[in-house]
Amino acid sequence: MKQSRSHGAQQILGSGDPKNLQAQLRKVLPIYSTISLEVVSADDILETKVPLSTNNMNHLGTMHAGITWMAAEVLGGLAYLGHSQDFGQAWAAVKGVEIEFKRPVTSGISAKASFPPDERRRVAFELEEKSRSKFALKIEVTDEEGNLCAVATGNYVLRRNAAELIQVVSDT
Q: What domain range is 156 assigned to?
């Protein structure tokens, strides 16, 4: 983990190993430990899982909507972290996540998105040429029985310079 001078930002070092990414995410962002977020995959398919637990429930005994959102949103960071060897040094940030909840969640969830090689090549090229890139993920959140619980679109930005990234995100 690398500490930046820009507002105390911490960079997570990329790795293709889901358990290593999970440990780093939980260290930098302890909320992921609190909700027991598991990184399943950070390759062509990005996937996280979160169990239903007392930490993750709302007043109705179902999964809190914010937990469902978090399981989906973090996939954008995993898109970078799982492929940082192709992208080089960069900082990732979410521009926005639009989510539509389809049904109450009464079990653990899985959030998945595709990040295919052609999209990764486009992002790598833009980072090389412009020192920045934007990408979007179509995300599906399902329960343990495979029922669709939410769909989301996540929009993310990568920048080489953390200070520029903080400015860009705060300006929008």
A: 2-171
What is the arithmetic mean of pLDDT over 35-52? 97
**Digit-coded pLDDT (tens) for 132-145:** 999 999 999 999 99
pLDDT band at 128; cut points 50, 70, 90: very high
> CATH no. for residue 30?
3.10.129.10
CA 17 to chain centre: 15
**Other C-beta atoms within 10 Å of 30: how many?**
9
Characterize 107-130 residue by residue with b for buried, 16 or more Cβ atoms within 10 angstroms of its Cβ, and e for exposed: ebbbbbbebeeeebeebbebbeee
User: Which DSSP symbol is given to 145?
Assistant: T
Q: How many domains in the chain?
A: 1
At 141, the amino acid letter reads V
